[in-house]
Design a protein that fits this description.
Elements lengths: L8 H13 L5 H8 L5 H21 L10 H6 L3 H14 L4 E5 L5 H8 L3 E6 L2 H13 L5 E4 L12 E4 L4 E2 L2 E2 L10 H7 L4 E5 L13 E7 L2 E8 L9 E6 L3 E3 L13 E5 L1 H5 L3 H7 L3 E2 L7 E3 L8 E10 L3 H10 L2 E9 L5 H8 L5 E10 L2 E10 L4
Parallel strand pairs: 1-2, 1-4, 2-3, 4-7, 8-10, 16-17
Antiparallel strand pairs: 5-6, 7-9, 8-9, 10-11, 12-14, 12-15, 13-14, 15-18, 17-18
Helix pairs in contact: 1-3, 2-3, 5-6
Amino acid sequence: MTVTALLDGSGTEVLAEACAAYQPGKELQLVERLRRRYDATLVTIAVTQASLRHRAVAKFGADAARMYFTPDGLEQATRTTVGTHRAARIAAALPGSSVVDLGCGIGGDLISAARAGLRVTGVERDPETAATARANLAALGLPGEVMVGDAESTELTPYDVVFADPARRADGRRVFDHNAYSPPWTFVTELLQRTACVKVAPGIPHDAVPEGVEAEWISDAGDVKEAALWSGALYTGTPRRATLLPSGVSVADAPEAESGPVERYIYEPDGAVVRAGLVTAVAAAVDGWLLDPRIAYVTAPKLVPTPLASAYEVVEELPYKEKALRSWVRTQGIGTLEIKKRGVDVDPAQLRKKLAPKGSESATLIITRIGRDAVAYSCRRVKIEP
């Protein structure tokens, strides 16, 4: 018995009751109560689904209350903000085009694409997951079809755009090496010889991206979520891009930048900007320079609003020695200590424990390397609006 058991009859009833009464941490009590009136297996599936819907709100917002999930499917699904951005980009380049999603999972990307006016077809080799994707399109009133099949054997000729999200997990563990993707990287590179978009891990090496393909790193609310490779009619002519959601700000140019001494402000580029190798774009935006040519920190004398980076006002430079830093924490009465680091082999959590912050004040400690020397700066986080 799978998620399809919840789509009609008593399955619909028990799911509605489970979702209405669901409270995190009280699943056993809910199961016991519902089993007095419903089949035990059906109740287990319904309560599991209620739990998954509760967790899914972080990715799918209000849609989660009407959607269906599998545990693995939810874990691997694209969040709505990212899927919407990607679908909008396809729709802008090829309005109303047909898109086949190879390995569509529970259908998160199908939903975004269908809402963007694209004609969608999903291919998923696991029958239960395919049924879940099909149910999600129906639950949200969206057109599209989902077929059970293998990505590598799917005939692609009928479609204008191919979208693929290769599996990046093996034996329950996350895979970081693109050569270990499933379908394999050779299949991905073949797809990228046509009009395609392939979702990859943000750690994809720049030199792994084929010639004539754009790599776009995407962050959402400051967290790097993924990279996407764009080819064919979706290629914009730029090799690397960073896009920041929810603002949609995008940067693709990396101008030359000098390095120099620390000034009043230190800027920490958004993770997508760093992954894309576009840190110098931040230097240009704030009329500043790099602290070190190999480190992703920018410094400038003025506070300049930019969505590309977080800003910190430098209070003082500190000796990078545990004893000196502990003394600074104590004398300043610091109880909330944020530690940022680049280019230095230090675990912020362990260092924070050693510094033992206690007090009412808060501060940011930036530790980095300039040349051969490790340096530390006492800073104050500055809120800037773009």
